[in-house]
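step=predict obj=ATP-dependent RecD-like DNA helicase n=748
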Amino acid sequence: MAEAAVEADGTADTPEGADEVTEDSAPAAEDTGEAGPAVPGADATEDSASQGDGPGEGDTAPTTDAAAAGDGAAELSEAQAELAAQRELRARIEARKAEKEGPVAAGTKLSGQAADLLAAVRAVESGEKPGASFFASAPAPRRPAPVPAAPAPVRTQAPQPARVAAGPEVLAEVRAVLSGGGAPDSLAPQVTDALGEQAADVLRTDPWQLLAVPGVRPEQADGFARALLGSECGPDDPRRAAALVAWTLERASVQGHTALPIAAVKAALAERSVPDVDEAVRHAVSEGVVLVFEDGVAALDTEPDTEPDDAEEGTPEDEAAPVEVLLGLDRYALAEESLADGLARLANAPVKDDGSDWAQAASAAPSPSAAELIRAVAGNGLVTHSGGEAARAESAAVVTAAHGLGLRAAAAAHTRDGRRRLAGAVGAERAFTVAALLSGTEGPGRDEDGALALDVLVVQDAPQLDVEGAAMLVESLPDGCRLVLGGDPEVLGSAGAGRVFADVLAARAVPHVASRTPDPGPLGELVSGIGAGELGQVEAPGKEVVIVPVRDAGEAVHRCVQLVADSVPRAIGVPAEQTQVITVGHGGSAGTRALNAALKQRLNPGPGRFAGFDPGDRVAYAEAPGRTSVGVVGSAGPDGLHLDCGGEPLVVPKERVESALRHGWALTAHQAAGMRWPAVVAVLPGDAAQGLSRSWVYTAFGRAERHLSVVHGVDQALPRAVAEVPAPARTTRLTPLLTALLRTPEAE
């Protein structure tokens, strides 16, 4: 077995002695009989004359040029247009919810707490409780299917105005309330964003609404409430309980959940010293703070009604199993239901042709899997497609085939890098990002009914779709449009709530094509094995995989800088600007912050005169939660900081530089999802072991196209994570919703 190694060919006092990858072999850790890194490839050691372990003092100097920019009128950014589109679609989602004739599915076999909770939510929906306003929107008429012979006119959708910032009087009033409660008045803009222009009155009436501001914790809200309410404040205050229920579910959404079992919510409330958790949940439901749903079979209460010794023996077999009650925020409930309705609409709509023309396109497909996918799309309005990087060519072939048949076809990716790769396969005029397609800044535009002017849409990177974004996308497609959801089910999921792609696959209600085209080379073999739960050795005759063992985090930073700056460019031929570092988290002694500081000092030292950034710095711009663009700083102007993202210009507004821009030589695997680079250095220090999972390793290692270096300090935690640690589970409702809507007569 051929193994790659990094040779130590220099000494501490020889600057040119930077280590490089050679064809000399070193025994792998598994072959030495010693405790060592159990990863494919070979152990290797390096020495270097210099170690970049931190930035200079001037690296965080405040901006001079960018911050001094004027207030010139600029066009709406893509992010603003996307937010406007989200608001418009949420109105549509609520209208679709209003079309439903009855309340949320009620369990006729429920009793006790479940019956009380469902009765409460019925009261909300019927108008007897204040929460009825959630369902007060007027029904939206269904769009007619477009006529094939006369395509709808294509025109770009004008972005809707972004919400106007609160005025100085509003902010001043909010600052006064915050100061009165001992909270920093600097929170005023965030408070008005979360609570609106009536924020001051809202906080006076219910101080715990401060929890609606991201980053505020319950103990801080409690202190704020005590300062405002005095003796009236107590742990049993129903306002506190309702706010804590909402806060618990908001925190869960950050972990990907769209709902939580009632037992989990009760446990969270108990940890916050809520005296009567049952009453707290009932109050939150009756006030419309949360919605109640039933799903599956599981224990309803946190504790049984009777002790095990007192329980009756011989439970009748025909007794109904208890139903798991879920609690969810209305925004995610409405999004999941709208998404399920939209997917069912596409799946059930008749296609516009008999598929005969597609047969010839399938015969000319580049691979058997591509031909199978084209045939599936020919006869169905909704198709799922799974596979690795090589499978992306198969879904791209669908766009090419549809365009050849005279249909309006497009493909969408999660990131700008994904769009760039798509453009190489289907043409720049048919490749977009999902966000730009929805915002109207890219794409074919909208027809007269407000739908995207498309007959076929292929979505790559579907695992990165959160439930709200997916609902917006599906709602924007016209009746009769064919939709292909494609992606690799093994990669890390979306940054937002939901597991859309996995839920659609789990429903097994629409045609699915699994690619049989393997990813090529040693890297493809390595990543495919990881997806199957095995971390084996691979032959790497071209030094495609290199293992660099380290003892601690400080050495991990040193080795990482050395690989990026010296070894990989010299031995592999990939320059530093095409090498991406990926690590587990932002914090810690070898997280993205520490690595970026060391890499900046080595690769582009400078005073950071543009808000901490210099021309030539690699940066990561968080355009929206879960969507990162990597670029290089060019200059600063009145409109903000100018970036070059792979040849595409991008301007970061000056007010977002501090909050949304970071150095980007090192990213987390979540940030890197949907992108690829010629070379990747994966840094796994010892303290990263708890953050590893199979999907994390699969995603991080799979970002490399030609070369992967693993800076390895987690010993046996890496193979154990691949074999035993799946991605964290997410609680969602989309699968049963889809199953109910798409159930066939035979299944019934």
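step=describe
The longest helix spans residues 78-99.
step=end
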